[in-house]
């Protein structure tokens, strides 16, 4: 694999929190990827949802399928830009490990519950999962991943939380939130691939659900130009294949746009190393035109899909499930497994336990504790 000077080289990794001997057949980033794939938190992603909750249909995206789609898009771009594909894949597969059940609704509800206890950030929780909560090795907690993977997982972080992490781990993964530098180019790429994947699959799931229509999407420039091209090139095409071909073309155009715009930024900045790239302004981006069209699509999905009355009704009930679970465990910690109940910081233990739940387990637990079934 040919790597550019600005790409992360596993042979020059900043290492792991606990020293380990090198593997004989795998790079450090490949080992990280394999540890993530075999983790408990990764398996749970198959029953954690995006927009539509797990009980609403078998074909809607889950956190797992979303993570796989992000990995595919990011690797395609990374290969052309001579970035480290293994690191890109690893970050993509791990970026949602800390997400709650019930998508962003669950996250928002849990943050509200935790306001007086330090709050809840799903990106910080993803780092907490790989650093502390996974229990797979005899010598340490967590997965003991490399700095570069952990840096990519921590996509967002409040200043207060960054200061706490920095105090415990000086010059660590939270430092950039205090000094204004960037993560690796591989991490930047995963962030944008996440956005591209979201927009594309939420169109697909939204149309499949019947909550948005192709006719409504005709008013969105990024969708309409490829929809028109599809009908022009395949006038006899009907049904879902029209939608799939439109999304395929839209995805391809975004990928090529990111490649061209990012390459131009890299050529201009000319970073000679990964650390030099971290000191540059963000390098991975859309062109101005594509960025504007992508933002317009996001606004459409926000107003027409994420705030659709049917979605809000279901997510409202999902938030209630999370809030009532939190209250039940805070009132009686013995309702949690013993290892959570025994921890001194009850609120954080409750947040860790709830955040690790799948949609269907959270629903069953809520019914067990309250005697009410809020989600079908």
How would you describe what is shown here?
With 376 residues, the protein is mainly alpha-helical. It has one domain: Orthogonal Bundle (Hypothetical protein af1432), CATH 1.10.3210.10. 62% of the residues lie in helices and 0% in strands. It is built from 19 helices and no strands. It has helices at residues 28-37, 40-44, 63-81, 85-94, 103-113, 122-133, 147-153, 159-168, 176-179, 185-209, 214-217, 221-233, 240-269, 274-278, 288-306, 309-331, 338-341, 346-355, 359-370. α3 (63-81) packs antiparallel against α4, α4 (85-94) packs across α10 (185-209) and α10 (185-209) packs antiparallel against α13 (240-269). The longest helix has 30 residues, at 240-269. It is globular and about 65 Å long. The N and C termini lie far apart (49 Å). The mean pLDDT is 94.
């Amino acid at each position: 694999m040919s790597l550019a000077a600005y790409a992360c080289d596993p042979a020059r990794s900043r290492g792991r929190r606990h020293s380990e001997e090198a593997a004989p057949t795998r790079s450090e980033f490949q080992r990280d990827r394999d540890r993530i794939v075999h983790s408990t938190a990764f398996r749970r992603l198959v029953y954690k949802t995006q927009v539509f909750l797990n009980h609403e249909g078998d074909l809607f995206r889950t956190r797992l399928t979303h993570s796989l789609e992000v990995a595919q898009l990011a690797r395609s771009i990374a290969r052309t830009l001579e970035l480290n594909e293994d690191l890109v894949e690893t970050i993509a597969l791990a970026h949602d490990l800390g997400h709650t059940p019930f998508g962003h609704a669950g996250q928002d509800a849990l943050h509200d519950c935790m306001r007086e206890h330090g709050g809840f950030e799903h990106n910080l929780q993803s780092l907490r999962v790989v650093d502390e909560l996974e229990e797979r090795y005899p010598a340490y907690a967590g997965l003991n991943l490399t700095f570069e993977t952990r840096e990519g997982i921590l996509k967002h972080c409040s200043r207060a939380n960054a200061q706490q992490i920095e105090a415990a781990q000086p010059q660590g993964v939270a430092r950039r939130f205090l000094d204004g530098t960037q993560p690796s180019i591989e991490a930047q790429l995963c962030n944008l691939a996440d956005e591209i994947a979201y927009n594309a699959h939420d169109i697909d799931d939204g149309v499949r659900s019947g909550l948005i229509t192709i006719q409504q999407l005709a008013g969105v420039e990024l969708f309409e130009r490829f929809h028109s091209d599809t009908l022009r090139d395949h006038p006899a095409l009907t049904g879902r294949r029209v939608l799939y071909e439109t999304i395929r073309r839209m995805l391809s155009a975004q990928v090529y746009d990111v490649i061209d715009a990012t390459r131009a930024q890299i050529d201009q900045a000319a970073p000679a190393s990964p650390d030099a790239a971290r000191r540059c302004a963000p390098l991975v981006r859309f062109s101005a035109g594509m960025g504007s069209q992508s933002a317009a699509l996001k606004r459409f999905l926000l107003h027409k899909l994420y705030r659709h009355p049917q979605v809000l009704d279901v997510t409202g009930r999902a938030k209630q499930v999370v809030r009532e679970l939190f209250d039940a465990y805070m009132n009686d910690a013995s309702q949690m497994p013993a290892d959570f109940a025994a921890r001194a910081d009850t609120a954080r233990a409750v947040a860790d336990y709830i955040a690790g739940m799948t949609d269907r387990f959270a629903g069953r637990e809520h019914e067990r504790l309250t005697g009410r079934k809020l989600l079908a």
